[in-house]
Amino acid sequence: MSGLDLYELPNFEAIEASENKLGIQSILFWITVVVAVYLAWTIASPFWYQISNRLSSRVTELRRNSANIILGTTDVFTGNAEIVRPRSEDAVLKGDVVYIAEPTSDNIKENQGLIYFSGSSGIAPSNRALADEFARAGYITVVINYWGKHQKIEDSGPWEIRDPNSEPSERKRTSMIKNALDYLRNNRNCTHIGGVGYSGGALPLMNLIQERPCRIEAAFMAHPGRLKTSAYGTIQIPLSLAQAWDDRSVDVRTRHEQEKELIDMVISTSAEKDAIKSGKLPPRVPWQMNLFSGVEYAFAVRLPSKGRMSRDEIYVKRAAFSQAVMWFETYMPFGEKKLKYDV
Fold first, then answer.
1. For 110, which DSSP code?
2. Contact predicate 195/219, CB 8 Å
3. Can you give the pTM of this predicted structure?
4. Is the separation of the CB atoms in 140 and 194 below 8 Å?
5. In whole angstroms, what is the distance from residue 154 CA to residue 69 CA?
6. Count of CB atoms situated within 10 Å of the CB of 203
7. Cα dihedral 326, 187, 173, 123 sign
8. Nearest alpha-carbon partner for 87 in 160, 159, 143
9. Is there a contact between 292 and 314 (Cβ–Cβ < 8 Å)?
């Protein structure tokens, strides 16, 4: 036996215990990694959305500058349609032409956007220019082609006569609105969305703000046409109006009837006012109506075909736009929950 080498038998129990210990440590390690990644993403995601939005806007700025689109651009409140150039680009959203006005990279209102309803002129120079102003104020703005009328950016020729038979169906229009709202929410992370309606565009906007629950939070209309007086008494969200004293689409009697609908909606007793102030009752839906003299129908969006706008026209157009921006800043507050009203 002396010529044989003796070996100790391995301790299999010790090896098995060691392997189990290593397996548990590995599982704990990967659980820790997953939890750390989740927490890091939860903390960083708001900043990532902010960075991605700024990068997107910056890319748009560089693209349109390189394309030389903005050369010759003049003030939308004083210039004429022949020299005002869009600052953003037309796009196709779920098969429909839209104009998406991008905020500048240094002035983005986080998680806020607007859906823009034009009058019967559709996606035209005047509406692109005004949408660009809302974008300059910080709101990403989507102009939908609700009336089926679109003039290409490079087309400087006269407008063709619009064929009523070419207007989109109601089903198509409903789809356009849904697609625009989905785009703002899902693609641009907009948790607060407002609506803008000019002239005939006030009709689809009024239909939208009567919904329960309403898909937007605040609305602005200028020289609204085609609206039933009774519609004003059933709005679900804050509404701001800018109207001309001498408006061919809304005579004095009709305007007074509209005012009465709005007034009746917010009339409260002293006890109700106290309850609202104390927070026991939600506030009534706020509204505002500004009446301007010296201008006519379409004053808030019109661009003169030649020459300059009058002093009254320039002031009123600026005032109506400022009215809209202040309204959205007040009733679509950044970082706050959606406001609730007694409707």
1. T
2. yes
3. 0.75
4. no
5. 10
6. 20
7. positive
8. 143
9. no
Domain ranges of the chain: 25-69, 89-332
Of the listed ranges 100-104, 237-241, 244-248, the least confidently predicted one is 244-248
In whole angstroms, give the CA distance from residue 61 to residue 57.
6
The encoded tokens of residue 313 equal 């026209």
| Number of residues in the chain | 343
The DSSP H or E segment spanning 42 is helix 12-66
- 333 SS3 class: coil
Other CB atoms within a 10 A radius of the CB of residue 286 amount to 18
Tens digit of each residue's pLDDT (9 = 90 or more) over 12-32: 454 454 555 556 777 777 788
Of residues 311 and 20, more confidence is placed in 311
Q: Return the percentage of the chain with pLDDT > 70, whole number.
A: 75
Which range has highest mean pLDDT (16-20, 132-136, 266-270)? 132-136
Between CA 331 and CA 286 the distance in angstroms is: 9
pLDDT of 9 strictly over 60 = no
Q: What is the phi/psi pair of residue 90, to 5°?
A: -70, 155
State the Cα–Cα distance between residues 258 and 261, nearest whole angstrom: 5
Q: Is the peptide bond before 103 cis (omega within 30 degrees of 0)?
A: no
Thinking of the domain 89-332, which architecture would CATH place it in?
3-Layer(aba) Sandwich (3.40)
DSSP for 217-243 reads SEEEEES--S--GGGGGG--S-EEEEE
Instruction: Report the C-alpha gap between 221 and 340 in whole angstroms.
Output: 21
CA atoms within 13 Å, Cβ hemisphere of 221: 27
CA distance 74 to 332: 30
Cα 252 versus chain centre, distance: 32
Q: Which among 175, 32, 210 has a CA at the least distance from the CA of 94?
A: 175
User: Distance between CA atoms of 126 and 136, rounded to whole angstroms?
Assistant: 15
